[in-house]
Amino acid sequence: MRNIILCTILAILFSCKKDNHLQVENDNKVEKIVNNNELNIPLGDSLISKSNFVNQINNNNSIKSQREYLSKINYDYDKFCLLTKDRILSSKKNFTFRLNNNINNNNTNADIFKSISLCIYSNNSLVDSLVIYKQENYGEALVAKTQYFYLNASLNLWTLSITEEEEGIKVTSWNYYKIDEKGKINLLKEDFIQKKILVTNSNWIGKYFFEKTNRDELKTSFEIFIKDLNLITLKYISDSDQTENYMNLVGDKVADNKIRIVFNKKYGNMGVIYIENYEGNYLISGTPISIINPGNDEFPIIKIK
Fold first, then answer.
1. How far apart are CA 47 and CA 253, in angstroms?
2. In this predicted model, what pLDDT tens digit does every residue of 19-29 receive, in sequence order?
3. Is residue 127 within 8 Å of 134, Cβ to Cβ?
4. What is the end-to-end Cα distance of the chain in Å, rounded?
5. Could you give phi then psi for residue 232, rounded to 5 degrees?
């Protein structure tokens, strides 16, 4: 994990230094970004406004999965590394929206610091402002902090702060704002993140059923009865063959909300499945599941009781 974070920080260092070098050579690149309407409302990635997206990061203990979710952010926030001057964003509802570079307001000891504020003006007078994008990277401590944002056409604004360190990735804040008719940025909800659900052994007790047909119309099914994580019964049908029955299996916790069940060691990965409890909904995954429909490695599984 230490090596991963170090590589990430070095990559960001190289990227920003490269962009700043380009900026010194040709300041017109920033003007071109603005003229091409790449900096206009709506601004940012709409995923930042989605509670499901944020909770998937916040409630997941797998760093690999967290990275996969974060990789879904397609908006190029790195373009803000190019902003060395204040830029007019657009005019809307008799207000002028401006992006201000806060490079001179660095009161941290970060190796990389970038901060952009959204400022709202009326008749050349500042009405309100808010830091919407921030990037702090601490090379020695191996910590990277990023604040993303999304501003939609209705002037709803979301900010999402992520901290990445050796222990993993965590959501530190997720806030929702509304810009009113006076140009004021009003905080409506602060840190409204669904906390991780503590899944105890008793939460797993019950009967589960999964059935899926592949492209060749061959059926695969699992019927699982969990009396306790140390006492699991499983019925398995692969490619419509005869039923295989397994008893006295064990569910090993691989995360707070996820267990692994090895039902046949001779099958290798084909003999292992995973069940995940995500906010009361259950998912089944593993190699026996992924081969049913390549590219889709998890499916809902029904908890009957």
1. 30
2. 433 333 334 43
3. no
4. 39
5. -120, 135
Pull the structure tokens for residue 92: 């809307």
Q: Which of 74, 72, 69 is nearest to 278 (CA)?
A: 69
**Is 269 strand, coil or helix?**
helix
Tell me the C-alpha to C-alpha distance, in Å, between residue 159 and each of 6, 65, 89, 178, 186: 25, 21, 18, 12, 13
| Span 114-132, pLDDT tens digits | 889 999 998 889 999 999 9
9 three-state secondary structure: helix
CA 39/CA 235 separation, integer angstroms: 56
Helices (H), 108-254: 201-204
If we measure between CA atoms, which residue out of 103, 81, 91 comes closest to residue 33?
81
In this prediction the pTM is 0.55
Length of the chain: 305
**Pairs from 135-140 (Cβ < 8 Å, separation ≥ 24):** 135/12, 135/80, 136/108, 136/110, 136/112, 137/9, 137/12, 137/13, 137/110, 137/111, 137/112, 138/9, 138/109, 138/110, 138/111, 139/6, 139/9, 139/10, 139/13, 139/111, 140/111
Token pair for 16 = 């920003």
